[in-house]
Amino acid sequence: MAARKALAELSRGSAGVELLAEIEQAHAAVEAAERRMVGARIPSLAVRARQRLRNAQEAERQILAAHGYDSWLGLQLCRVDTLFAQPAYEDVVAAEMEHRAALASWEELAGDTELPTESAPFLPARRNVALRPDPARPAVA
Fold this sequence. Notes:
It is a single chain. This protein is mainly α. It has a domain at 2-85. The chain has 6 helices and no strands. The radius of gyration is 27 Å and the shape is elongated.
């Protein structure tokens, strides 16, 4: 639970962005060390590559542990979980439900009516006209 709270705090402000960048940089170093280790064919180079990998993994582990995460994957799972826990997600679900209801009402009213293809070029112009302020209505300050 503390990790989720920390992640919510990470999501806000420049300090959170910087911390996430630091974590991602540490993870990128682990991935680079893994690639070097796989590519090392000479035993002495493989030993060095393995040591670099251990160092990179330890640095990543320390950064994650300092913020309450066990692993990089755990952090990513918490980030996804946090996205679905935010009130914004509820707004998206509500908008989707309203859209579906409006679509069902439209289909009930209009049926399978399709616009003729020759009227398609005029649709953007009609949309622009509808968005222009009505001169008969007073402006809202």
